[in-house]
Design brief:
Length: 559
């Protein structure tokens, strides 16, 4: 159905019966989210012949939006100011990757954590943005540049507004939107600087991003620590102590100590510990390593890992490491190399996520979601209730594995955590995505009730998305079976594991009745009007669970 025609007034007489989670996860907002996906689909249709140029231009405009938002004072979801739809397209790809978004907020844009996606406003202003939005864009975001609020095909054939900086000589020059789009999306395309006369591709620019992060100017009270993308957060989605605690070693300091060596007569060596002077910081030593061993000497971020491993081997020979010690250090280097490749690989932007690739991937997911058969408001009601069950299931699985709730742990592992999150029904996925578009609320809610920020990953490779049209049906079967199994297994420990089995006043189940075999086995029950848990008889729950399991198997026996 076309969600652009949705009018919330039609739900006024039953709105009080709808479920609500964390104040922003509502039936209306999930519909507004699908309306937003429709607008993204229309964007792709409009720029179908210039997609590379469009994505490159949208990424630059998103950066301009972030800079402009530093001067905003209206940081609520009721703000009348909306971003251009192409900016919202890139922002959406950023927001649905909570770890990378939060890391970028800590690195360069702390103010953006307080600016949720204005779903309702974008829905109602889809054809005519208001004067305040256009004025804010013109005066704060596109100041000094001829950057329109609404992009058109004609803009794809013009020069980029402003100037682009050469990553090698730091001089600025003019470039056409088409040429920039080809360069930004194709690592085999090189640009030639007008000033230094050197050619460079996106990998060369990405290497300079590493140098920029290493040489970032620090505050006087800030720890001597390089903010390397992909290494700042622990498994709980919180900043590592090694980044903030003055008494701990940073990742660069550990790397320097692990692989640094000074072989005899190696004045031109590319060792990460090139100088023995104690006045040279670990960041400076890493910069020297990048300049001598990586810059202009590699063709991709994959080349960094063998270089670092070679340095480790020299160190192992010098220090006489055992094979087990060397293997442990190799694994740490591989983890760092993986993070650097994931965050810097062919990514010349300042973000820890390649937003262009992420946006393309999310667009494929959006098409899949829009193809679903949505019944309003029932589908959204079920989505919110199932999402609540999904969160409780994640929490229960976490406790069941003995993970505990220690939010200060940086080494905690939970192998099944992402497995459960890897397959969700379409209605749960839409609700989850809607929740993530309110970044501060999502972060606080998951930390409070799950003890960790629940990351959102795309386990299905980009090239396989179109081949999984039946994922919804198989996901329902897996989700319902898993929910039934979790309810009947070790049920006597439920009260011990979950002294407060629901989300208290942050969740309202609603009184609207929607037939749903999955939701009916909510093994934690729901809260009453006062937010207190409602207890249920264990034998009765087991009987219902068995009935639902039989009906579910019967329902999906032909799948």
């Amino acid at each position: 159905m076309p969600f652009n025609q949705f009018d919330p007034i039609s739900f006024n007489h039953i709105k009080h019966t709808f479920p609500l989670l964390d104040s922003d996860v509502s039936v209306e907002n999930t519909i507004y989210y699908l309306s937003l996906l429709e607008q993204f689909q229309q964007l792709h249709h409009t720029f179908a012949t210039h997609l590379d140029t469009f994505h490159a231009r949208a990424e630059l405009r998103y950066q301009a939006w972030i800079q402009g938002c530093q001067k905003r004072i209206d940081n609520t979801s009721s703000s009348i100011i909306i971003p251009p739809i192409d900016v919202a397209y890139m922002s959406h790809a950023h927001l649905v990757s909570p770890f990378r978004f939060y890391e970028d907020c800590q690195r360069m844009m702390p103010h953006m954590l307080n600016f949720p996606m204005p779903l309702k406003q974008i829905h109602f202003q889809r054809n005519a943005p208001n004067r305040e939005s256009v004025q804010f864009w013109t005066s704060e975001c596109a100041k000094g540049r001829d950057e329109p609020f609404i992009l058109t095909i004609d803009d794809m054939n013009q020069q980029l507004p402003g100037y682009q900086e050469c990553p090698l000589c730091k001089k600025c020059f003019k470039i056409s939107s088409h040429d920039y789009g080809r360069w930004r999306t194709d690592p085999t395309v090189y640009l030639k600087c007008w000033y230094c006369d050197q050619e460079y591709n996106i990998h060369d620019a990405a290497v300079e991003q590493i140098v920029n992060d290493l040489s970032r100017e620090k505050q006087p009270t800030e720890k001597e620590s390089a903010w390397i993308r992909g290494t700042m957060l622990n498994n709980l989605g919180m900043i590592k102590k090694s980044v903030t605690d003055p008494g701990t070693e940073s990742v660069i300091q550990r790397l320097r100590r692990t692989i640094g060596h000074s072989p005899p007569s190696s004045s031109s060596s590319s060792s990460i510990n090139q100088t023995s002077s104690s006045s040279v910081s670990s960041s400076r030593a890493m910069i020297e390593f990048i300049e001598k061993s990586v810059r202009r000497k590699t063709t991709s971020m994959y080349d960094i890992e063998p270089i670092l491993l070679r340095q480790l081997h020299f160190r192992a020979l010098e220090q006489e490491y055992t094979s087990e010690e060397e293997k442990q250090k190799q694994n740490k280097i591989k983890d760092l190399a993986y993070a650097m490749n994931a965050c810097y690989g062919n990514n010349p932007s300042p973000f820890s996520l390649d937003l262009i690739q992420a946006a393309k991937r999310q667009h494929k997911e959006g098409i899949r979601l829009l193809k679903e058969h949505w019944l309003l408001p029932d589908s959204m009601v079920l989505g919110i209730r199932r999402y609540k069950n999904f969160l409780l299931l994640i929490n229960y699985h976490h406790h069941d594995q003995g993970g505990g709730m220690n939010v200060d742990s940086s080494e905690e592992e939970d192998d099944g955590y992402y497995l459960i999150g890897s397959r969700t029904t379409a209605d749960v996925d839409v609700t989850w995505r809607t929740h993530m578009l309110f970044p501060n609320q999502y972060r606080q809610f998951t930390l409070r009730y799950l003890g960790r920020v629940m990351n959102h990953e795309d386990p299905i490779p980009h090239y396989q998305l179109e081949e999984n049209d039946n994922i919804q049906r198989s996901s329902v079967r897996r989700y319902s079976t898993l929910l039934s199994r979790r309810r009947t297994r070790n049920h006597h420990s439920v009260s011990r594991v979950h002294p407060r089995p629901s989300f208290g006043l942050d969740y309202t189940h609603g009184s609207i009745v929607v037939d749903d075999p999955i939701d009916s086995i909510s093994y934690y029950g729901d809260s009453d009007s006062n937010g207190s848990p409602m207890t249920k008889d264990i034998p009765e729950l087991e009987r219902k669970s068995a009935e639902i399991k039989r009906s579910t198997i019967s329902k999906f026996k032909d799948i």
